[in-house]
Amino acid sequence: MVSRSANDSFAALLIVGGLVAVIFLTGFVEHTRPPLPSGYEDEDAALNGSRLKGFAFGAEGLISDWYWMNSLQYIGKKVSTVGLNNLNLEDMTALNPRLLYPYLNSATDLDPHFVAPYSYGATILPAIDSRQAIALTEKGISNNPDQWRLYQYLGYIYWRLGNYEKASETYGRGAQIPGSPIFMRMMSARMKTEGGSRGIAREMYGQLLAEAEDERTRQNAELRLRELDSLDERDVIRAALSDFRSSNNDRCPANWSQLLPNLEKRSPPGLDLRIDRANNIVDPSGAPYLLNRETCSVELGPDTKIPRQ
Length: 309
Hints:
elongated; 11 helices; two-stranded antiparallel sheet; mainly alpha; two-stranded antiparallel ribbon
């Protein structure tokens, strides 16, 4: 009995000592580990879901959902580090979202008919890697040739790239699918003549907003529409500032209140500028525009939620 008790005590001491050693070594490794390049805090473990296809005993759809949900959370965390108002919607490479495409590719390998990951990738990936965006969306079309929305998304990618001829061709192909809306035929025709206009952009993002299948795509479309509204508003404000200077010996107004009469003359039908109680002109996010008196121009204010390009 004495011998057994001694052995038990020794084993307990050995376990405790081992735990202490592990804790010490873990702390030592954390403090001495060289810094990793930005973005390498992402873990690559189990990313290649394609290898699971055929070995998941019928659970491919469930695993595909897991990759899809992780792609949403992954980008959400990346965006939260900079904030929506500081996010460059044209170029998101600064976020180094290197795992987004592998997540989406794995999801669609496991379930080729799961349309949502294709749609999401088509709206987010163009600001990260256009080649990946095109590859994923063409993969979706190949696996789901009767889904006209995928042609819409592919046309959107080519439109972003400024390839209006290819965008027109893609919308035209989608328009031939039974059940596709007249919007597809209209876009196919207008791309050739109005491809770079704000009007086309407004229709494009309005359609994406109406059909968004996830919150991130919806937020992106809403931000884009607000940005377009703000661009129109700033054009009108700049014209009113020019009028004011012409009528006042090149003097810039001291505040927005002095500019309001000129704005009433310049505002086109359908454009309703918002004025707060302090007579500040506010942007579509509700933040006051900034009057830069040194350059006599309008700028986005510090509290804006409009993307700064």
